[in-house]
Amino acid sequence: MRVFCDGQTVADHERVWAWHQTITDAEHRQAANMLRRNRIGALRPVRESEAQISVEQRTLSDYDAALGIDLGEDGFAS
């Protein structure tokens, strides 16, 4: 079996007539395994110690002041 793309041969394999068979080229399997390993590594979560992500934290009173909310001594908005 030959497969062509833009006039060039891109695949040239012997035809297998057996039913329910999956034939995989050894080079294709090796490439698929490498891609699978790389993908799994990319999906693993990064530990916080490795990432060193810093997020600013504010008190709720900062947000109250930004929104013009005045809380009385009892903690309720007036």
Secondary structure layout:
Layout: E1 2-5, E2 8-12, H1 26-43, H2 48-51, H3 60-66
Helix content: 25-40%
N-to-C order of helices and strands: EEHHH
* Uncertain segments: none
Total E-strand runs: 2
How much of the sequence lies in strands comes to 5-15%
The biggest sheet, with number of strands, parallel, antiparallel or mixed sense and barrel status, is: 2 strands, antiparallel
| Coarse morphology | rod-shaped
Structural class: alpha+beta
Determine the number of helices (DSSP H or I, runs of at least 4 residues).
3
Overall radius of gyration: 31 Å
The chain-level mean pLDDT equals: 82
Tell me the span between the first and last alpha carbons: 82 Å
Q: What is the spatial order of strands in the main beta sheet?
A: 1-2
Domain Transposase for insertion sequence element IS21-like C-terminal: 1-25
Protein name: Transposase for insertion sequence element IS21-like C-terminal domain-containing protein
Organism: Mycobacterium sherrisii
